[in-house]
Amino acid sequence: MTWQDNYQVWKNYQDLDPALAQELADMAGDQEALENAFTKPMVFGTAGMRGLIGPGIGEMNVYTVGAAAEGLARFMDTLDDKDKQRGVAISFDSRYHSREFAHHSAHVLGAHGIPSFVFDDIRPTPELSFAVRHLHTYAGIMITASHNPKQYNGFKIYGPDGGQMPPKAADQITEYVNGIDNMFTVKTVKETTLRKQNLIHIIGEDVDEDYLAGVKAVSINPKLVDEVGKDMTLIYTPLHGTGHIIGYRALKDTGYNHFTMVKEQAIADPEFPTVVHPNPEFPEAFNMAIKLGKKEGADLLVATDPDADRLGAAVRMPNGEYQLMTGNQIASVLLNYILKAKQDAGKLPADGMVVKSIVSTELATKICEHYGVKMVNVLTGFKYIAEQIKLAEQNHDHTFLFGFEESFGYLINPFVRDKDAIQSTILLAEVAAYYKQQGLTLYDGIQQLYKTYGYYKAKTTAKEFDGVDGADKMAAIMKSLRDSHPTEFAGVKVETTDDYQTQVATHQDGSTEKLTLPVSNVLKYWLADGTWIAVRPSGTEPKIKFYIGTNGKTDAATAQKLDDFEKALTQWVKD
């Protein structure tokens, strides 16, 4: 069908949701908008789906969400009845239609006799992951677009272990979603009926208390919190998202008495009125926190994104200004503290394991080598970190100590199986207390690591490809990169090229070896000076991401190398 055909189907549907019908009418004269909304269906993949909110087969609305929930329901219909009756935990963030999408999903599941456990109000993604494990449900649904702008929403599915649904099951669900001929015919059951049938259960404080108990246990040295942390001045902003209740309670429960919320951003508002991008990776997300921090002389500023799975931080410098830390820097100080504190306490396990994505800093690898801890590298996507945790538990061969991605995602204790900004906030505050006790800051802490292991810097850039032909453009660029076989960047030779799509590593001398990670559309180049460059299409957004990681003996020399490689990469892509 053409986009015009799809548009007519929606336009002619008599029972179309009134709000969507009005939006559809408003779009009538905008051919580009109509083409984008009706040409291609929402892409449902291993990470679920994410897109603009609006009418059409290519946008987030009750019908595309209903189709996704129907795909999960049809998959669960193939399970034995015991697993099917374990049900699905459902949470949602503060975005437009999130509550509606969450309950609509429950209504679809209920039509298949599948119980749902729906939070009474907004809750973080990591708490949804916890709820799946805590309630022993078979699956979980999180309605969120994470750190995307206000125009977006999304649908993520979690598996029985609390991690994002593994690839094999996700592929099956995708087939069921794609097999729905008419999303308007997806059956639902009214909520009142489902309540009478005991197929919807409302959850909240009963889960909160147990999740917060787990968060409190993340603290490695409670004595340090009692002696230093309780008097440390902190600023916390949830950026209008789900962290505003849970984050506040977690800090209070752990003993951080001198912290202040950015009150304007502690309001759960789908407009995200104080920020353009509710993303702690972006400096402007900290503008209000910095202003308040200067007023109160805060030691540490922390920000969580709307679904509270990503954490950003800024530390006060001697001149009173605040320095934002990168995701790699936060991960490095957290990791070093975890390993050192456990070693000092005689609790560092001999079979310790840390897991990171292949585009995250190699400084973490150096730290692990120092403490005799195994580093495991996985593809980008926290589900792969969760997978390693599960394998370690099944094989009884490693003890998980820490997992992270450079994109501001960290996990300390595996009672959650996704990145957890609430856990990370509590431990980062403890690390800040550790350095404060020595008259230092977190910034001083990362500088100490650089002096010990060398200076490490990284840069991530992205090229966006919006519109109906965006995916085709990205595919063409990745193909051209594979065909060009670059042998050097900025005058530095490429020693090895890892192509995770073909699962082959090709060395400079022409020899090859098999890569063991799953198939993925990623290219990674290892250079003669220890630099690495990676390229991959985003799994959730219409963009290609370019990563550079380099190191050197001084801060200035490393910064210059990073700049040189970025210019070379920009020219390479342009050519």
UniProtKB/TrEMBL annotation:
The keyword Calcium does not apply. InterPro entries: A-D-PHexomutase_a/b/a-I, A-D-PHexomutase_a/b/a-I/II/III, A-D-PHexomutase_a/b/a-II, A-D-PHexomutase_a/b/a-III, A-D-PHexomutase_C, A-D-PHexomutase_C_sf, A-D-PHexomutase_CS, Alpha-D-phosphohexomutase_SF. It comes from the Bacteria. GO terms for molecular function: magnesium ion binding; phosphoglucomutase activity; phosphopentomutase activity. Residues 42-181, 226-314, 327-453 form the Alpha-D-phosphohexomutase alpha/beta/alpha domain. Pathway: Lipid metabolism; Glycolipid metabolism; diglucosyl-diacylglycerol biosynthesis. Pfam families: PGM_PMM_I, PGM_PMM_II, PGM_PMM_III, PGM_PMM_IV. It catalyses: alpha-D-glucose 1-phosphate = alpha-D-glucose 6-phosphate. Transmembrane segments: none annotated. This is Phosphoglucomutase. Gene3D superfamilies: Alpha-D-Glucose-1,6-Bisphosphate, subunit A, domain 3, Alpha-D-phosphohexomutase, C-terminal domain. Residues 503-557 form the Alpha-D-phosphohexomutase C-terminal domain. Its cofactor is Mg(2+). The gene is pgm. It comes from Secundilactobacillus silagei JCM 19001. Its EC number is 5.4.2.2. Keywords: Carbohydrate metabolism, Glucose metabolism, Isomerase, Magnesium, Metal-binding, Phosphoprotein. PROSITE patterns: PGM_PMM. CDD domains: PGM2 (cd05799). Belongs to the phosphohexose mutase family. One of its GO terms (biological process) is glucose metabolic process.
